[in-house]
Write a structure and sequence with these properties.
The chain is built from 9 helices and 10 strands. The protein is α/β, with parallel strands linked by helices and about 280 residues long. Helix 4 links the parallel strand 4 and strand 5. The structure holds iron/sulfur cluster.
């Protein structure tokens, strides 16, 4: 296939996702999150369009089994600012609508609400990431958290299944901030959460923005944490502690909650919220 790929070809042992495929309408991402794990892609902060995308997408969709689950996007954002004028993702939705597949949209942008007319015709769910109100310094070019929460509410009111990705949980943040987000997003259908994982470059970017975190993160991750595949994790004990804070709050609010790539069991029907797609 040319533009749709098998999700997680590296078979991460902690991945609990159902079988799915990955599709990125754009290469690279403009949101510039310092904690981003996809920066192994060359020139990652430069958003690029793909040649003959519509044709190649159609060709790949023809090859997919019926009812296949497509995740859009995992190593970019389908709604970078240029999508407002270029409408590449919108064109992809118009094409996908003609196939019997399920679509999980993952974004950090409120531009997604523009396409609600198409989303209503698709078998889809929309996941929007919000990490905190104080964490915006680490995701400087993404829309404000308040705008993303408004987008979730708008989609909910339009009948689209919605997922809050409270992800990543940054270990220096206070739990009250996560509670504030969850309380504002009390209406979501599912919460997917995970702790911050670090690679050398993301560690350096975070430490550059906030030098006070350098020693703190060094100890938590490189001394007391563990390396799994190519990322540094917090210790399992600390991950369990942070994740249970979010899980318990979700329980109180009556929202299903799952963990992404943590190796820690959860009760929700799927980790990514794909169970919501009918
Ligand atoms: S929105 Fe996602 S892909 Fe884009 S920079 Fe942020 S973490 Fe990376």
């Amino acid at each position: 296939m040319k533009v749709i790929a098998e999700f997680d070809p590296w078979k991460n042992p902690l991945c609990t996702c159902p079988k799915k495929y990955s599709f990125n309408p754009y290469t690279g991402c403009a949101h510039k999150c310092d904690y981003c794990y996809a920066t192994y892609i060359p020139n990652f902060w430069e958003v690029r369009e793909k040649k003959n995308l519509s044709k190649r997408l159609e060709g790949d969709l023809e090859k997919l089994p019926r009812n296949a689950l497509i995740s859009m996007s995992n190593s970019s954002d389908p709604y970078p600012p240029i999508e407002k004028t270029r409408k590449i993702t919108r064109r992809c939705l118009e094409i996908i609508k003609n196939y019997d597949v399920r679509l999980l949209i993952i974004t950090k942008s409120n531009i997604v609400i523009r396409d609600v007319d198409l989303l209503r015709d698709l078998r889809c769910a929309v996941a929007i990431t919000v990490t905190g109100f104080s964490s915006r310094i680490f995701e400087p070019l993404a829309p404000k958290p308040e705008e993303r929460i408004e987008a979730l509410k708008f989609l909910k009111d339009c009948g689209i299944p919605i997922i809050l990705r409270l992800d990543p949980l940054m270990p220096w943040m206070k739990k009250e901030e996560w509670f504030a987000i969850l309380e504002k997003c009390y209406f979501v259908d599912h919460v997917a959460t995970s702790t911050l994982k670090l690679r050398k470059d993301s560690f350096e970017r975070i430490a550059k923005i906030n030098p006070d975190l350098r020693e703190f993160l060094k100890q938590l991750y490189f001394e007391r944490g563990e390396k799994i595949c190519s990322s540094w994790y917090l210790s399992k004990e600390l991950r369990e502690k942070l994740l249970s804070v979010v899980e318990n709050k979700c329980k109180e609010l009556g929202i299903s909650c799952a963990f992404c790539r943590e190796g820690i069991p959860f009760k929700a029907k799927s980790c990514d919220g794909s169970h919501l797609i009918k």
